[in-house]
Every structure is written in structure tokens, then in C-alpha cells.
Amino acid sequence: MTDKVDLLVVGGGINGVGIAADAAGRGLSVLLCEQQDLGWATSSSSSKLIHGGLRYLEQYEFRLVHQALAEREVLLKNAPHIIRPLRFRLPHRAHLRPAWLIRTGLFLYDHLARRVSLPPSARVRMAPGSPLKADIRECFEYSDGWVDDARLVILVARQARNHGASILPHTRCTGAQRHQDYWRVTLQDAGTGRVRQVQTRVLANAAGPWVGRFFKDDLKLQSQNRIRLVKGSHILVPRIKDDGYAYILQHRDGRIVFVIPYEQAYSLIGTTEVEFDGEPGKVSISDPEIRYLLDTVNDYFCAQLAPSDLVHSYSGIRPLLEDNRLEARQVSRDYRVELSHGDDQAALLTVFGGKITTYRRLAQAAVNHLVGLFPGMGRPWTADSLLPGGDFSDLPILICQLQQDYPWLPGDLVARLARQYGTLTQGVLQDCRSVPDLGRHFGHGLYQREVDYLCEQEWARSTEDILWRRTKLGLQFDQAQTLALQDYLAGTGDAS
Ligand SMILES: Cc1cc2nc3c(=O)[nH]c(=O)nc-3n(C[C@H](O)[C@H](O)[C@H](O)COP(=O)(O)OP(=O)(O)OC[C@H]3O[C@@H](n4cnc5c(N)ncnc54)[C@H](O)[C@@H]3O)c2cc1C
């Protein structure tokens, strides 16, 4: 039997789930397929910033910065559990960028879009006891947003499902035949190998770093646009300084490196830019990248780091819209959405480039392209739609409420659940009335109840899905604890 849908989206990264949610909410029947776990590729390997991109001003990308700055406010409002304000310090070293240039950039950053929830930039003198080296006497401060990128993908996928979309992780699109007004698409289940055919009026290629390969190998088509693959890596070290600030460090090569407070005890340091021509799914940090990141941090901070301080690292591939600039750092982070269809060809929608920050706008623009094909389609709606669990205004108040509702839960677990699930925490805990009701404890506050919830509601299947993308507990789990969770997921563990 062949299923029929209006729109089939290939790719379950942030752009694919964004398009699926937007289209489903406007009344289209939507199916999304993802060859692995949702968000496993670029969308969980970012610097996790919802930002305008201060440094893009140097490339005169005023349109991109304006859109991204405006989007910060939308996302901070719509997902207050997983997106939070973050204050940055930019240490001033006059020989790198003069103060007048930074002040001008920050003035634009403050004023290019309406700022509601974030404070303006400022110039601050460093007090004794600063974590920075003694020659750094002043910093510039400004605000942006922090996001749990992997959870953003899951919440947007849930939003899509809430509007009727079918979300199929572990399902690869292996080919598609184009007919006059429909595509016949072949999908293969990665677990069972089972193949099925789906008929769709529009096919959306949101395959991120695979976008070009999908065109060439699976669709046997040529695209007018090309992407450039650029690897970026991050390292995690024990928290350098617990002062609540993120730092943006200027490197002598003109690039910048972020040092961001991460989870409760770590600093996230990134990123690098390395041209890449391998398989995007197999990517890891190299020794020169580690040295580059450590040298940059050691150049600014009193605390000196060595490779032995690394707790974890990850790498991702940016699918950048090729604009033939020489250096990767100069290539635009903007996106392009292409709709191709002739009189006798079904429509193909393709996404090139983009950022986590602009996913919602990108999705809206992509679905707007389909109005001619589906005249009865609804209007754009996502700007004012809270993501699942985001229907509260203040995180500390939500944590207090949850503590009152579940007085038997340890305080740090309540705080983690609130940051991850927001008001969906009640759905995770359901009718539990005591710690034993949560079932088996796998370690570090991860109980059977939450594991079951993640499998039932958030498409989790493996330890990797649960420990690294749905939560960040992988930073604390040891091998034995991971194996016990793996056994449980395989159905062989003792659930008592
Ligand atoms: C190092 C780094 C730092 C970044 N930092 C930031 C930041 O701080 N802020 C920000 O806003 N942006 C940032 N970005 C950019 C942002 O992460 C990306 O633009 C975004 O995640 C791209 O999402 P995507 O959905 O296009 O791609 P992906 O997340 O890669 O999703 C594409 C998906 O398509 C799937 N797929 C491919 N082929 C098939 C097929 N045939 N069948 C089924 N599925 C298929 C893949 O498995 C993959 O999951 C950063 C990127 C990198 C690499």
C-alpha cells in the first residue's frame, strides 16, 4: 500500500522538524523521515547560542543579524525552559580590534532589532580577582541566548506531531521518482530494513550536510546552489570560573572563540573552522583543533588548561551556502530556500545553510513557498506558539511550584526536570507519589519513569539518545551505569 501526504520532509535536524511543524500547523498532511535519531547530526553539535552573531557585522551581514536578533526574543518567549539569556564578556585587547570598532558593533547589536528581555551592552572595568590575565583591564558586555539545541529539535518535533505530522526517526529516504504532480518516495527502516513507498505532492530536502548528496545520489538531480562543508569542534573542561559569564575571545587570526558555562560544572569551549570533504556522520576533533582552542583560552585566562583537562569533545559539520569566499569564517551563515517545479514536475523544496537561531523563520519562509500549491493552507502561526512545556513565564517560579507539588523529589532533580521539560514535568512524573514510584534508579537522578517517558514520548531508543541528546547525563554516567541502561532498553534488564 502507498501512503499519501502533502509534504514529505527528508531530514530530522532543526530545519526539517521546523518545516514539518510549520506545515502541519497550517493544515498540510506531513511525514518526516530521519535516517538516525532526531537532531543527532549538526543540530546537536552547535555552540548552542541563540544569537544575532556579533562577528557577522564585520561581514556587513546586517539583514542576517537583524533577523537573528529579532528571533532571539521570539525563541526566549516560546521556550523559556530550554532557552535562557546569557551575558557575554568580550575582553578588550586594543591591538586586536580597537575600542571604537567594538563600541560601534555593539551599538548596532543593541539597536538592529527590538530588545525586550535582554539588557543593553556595557563597558566594564575588571576588578581584582578577575579570571582574566592582568593585562586585560576592561571588557565589553552584551547579551544573547543559550539553547539546549538537541532538546529544541525534540520539542519542535513534538510540536509537529501535536499538529498531526508523522515523525519517523531511523528511516532513511533511499530514492524518489518524480511524476507530474507527485513524488513516489522510497523509505527504508534502519532497524528492520523494511521498505515502504509514500506518495507526496511536495518533497522537502532538509538533509543539512547531506543536502548535495541527496540531490545527486538519491534524486539524480543537479542543484543551482552548492554548500560548503566546514567542521567545527568544541571541548568541555571543568568550569573555569563560576562567575556566570560567557566569554568571547578574539584570536589573533581574526576568529573568535566562545567559553560558555555548561551544565552545572563545565565550560564549553569552541569553535573551530576546518574545511571538510568526508562523510558528515563520521566526524571528530583533531589534535590541532584541541591545541587551537586551549591556546586561545590560555592566552586570556589566568587558569591554564592542558589536553588532560578535557572531559568531552564533539564536532559537527556546518552546511554553509557556498558563496566562493576564500576563508570558511567569511562564508555567510544565511540560508536559502529553493522551490523547483515546472509545469510537468512535482515540487521540490530545498534548504541550504541556516542557523539554529533562524530555524523558525527558515521554516516559515519554506512553507510560504507552498501557498500556490495549497491555496487553502493556513497562515504563519509559529511566532506566537509556545513550544511544548514552555507555557510558563519564570523558571525559578516553575521550579518552586514543582517543589511544592512534589515535595519528596530531591531539589536538584526538580531543577533539572524543569529545565528540560518545563511544564511537561507533570507528564514525566504522572501519578508518582514517592521516590520508589519512579522505579529503578540508573544513576545521577535518572529513573525508570523518565526513561520510559523518553521512549514513549520523545522517540528515544538508545543510551546515546537518552544520555547525550534528551539529557546531558552522559557527562556523569560511568560505563557500568551506561551498560545497565542499555540492558534495560534492550528489554533484558531487571526493571525491579
Ligand atoms: C560547530 C557548529 C557551531 C554552531 N553554532 C551555532 C550556534 O551557536 N547558533 C546557531 O544558531 N547555529 C549554530 N550552528 C549552525 C546550526 O547548528 C546548523 O545550521 C543547523 O543545526 C543545521 O540544521 P539542519 O537541520 O539543516 O541539519 P542537521 O541537523 O544536520 O540535519 C540534517 C538531517 O538530515 C538527515 N538526513 C540526511 N540524509 C537523509 C536521508 N537520505 N534520509 C533521511 N534523513 C537524512 C541527517 O541524518 C540529519 O539528521 C553551528 C554549527 C556548527 C557545526
From TrEMBL:
It holds the Pfam family DAO. The keyword Flavoprotein applies. The keyword Transmembrane does not apply. SUPFAM superfamilies: FAD/NAD(P)-binding domain. Residues 382-481 form the Alpha-glycerophosphate oxidase C-terminal domain. Residues 6-360 form the FAD dependent oxidoreductase domain. Its EC number is 1.1.5.3. Belongs to the FAD-dependent glycerol-3-phosphate dehydrogenase family. This is Glycerol-3-phosphate dehydrogenase. The lineage of its organism: Bacteria, Pseudomonadati, Pseudomonadota, Gammaproteobacteria, Alteromonadales. The gene is glpD.
